[in-house]
Design brief:
Number of domains: 1
Number of strands: 0
Number of helices: 4
Largest sheet: none
Structural class: mainly alpha
Helix content: 40-55%
Distance between the termini: 36 Å
Order of helices and strands: HHHH
Length: about 140
Amino acid sequence: MYATEDDLLTRAPEVDADPGDAKIVTALTDASSLIDIYLCKRWAVPVMEPSKALEALANICIDLACYKVCRPDSALSEDLRKRHEDAIKLLEKISKGDVNLPGMNEDDDSNEATTSSAGAVVVTGPPRLFGRNKGY
């Protein structure tokens, strides 16, 4: 997950839930999965580094999760809906290459490496010869 329960409860005081609440964990897991769907077009997921990219992803994750956790009848629901829509638009731009995550770019082949859990297959290969930004 790109954000923890503590991140969500600290950065989003409007969340009306207690630590350990299953709906928080579910919302953060769903938000992280959605982020991975957009990022997998350009990078190996889940993104494990650099830290600046992880900070940006944590903010996106929190905005997506807050929308699911907060009650729809709350006074903040319009603000949460707007933040959710903005997070989706940002993910679309990142996916298309219009916006880069901090510290990550197409020319840096080190971004292709991934850390996996035990038993997962990881495929590595030589650096890219062709790419969107290489000028070939």
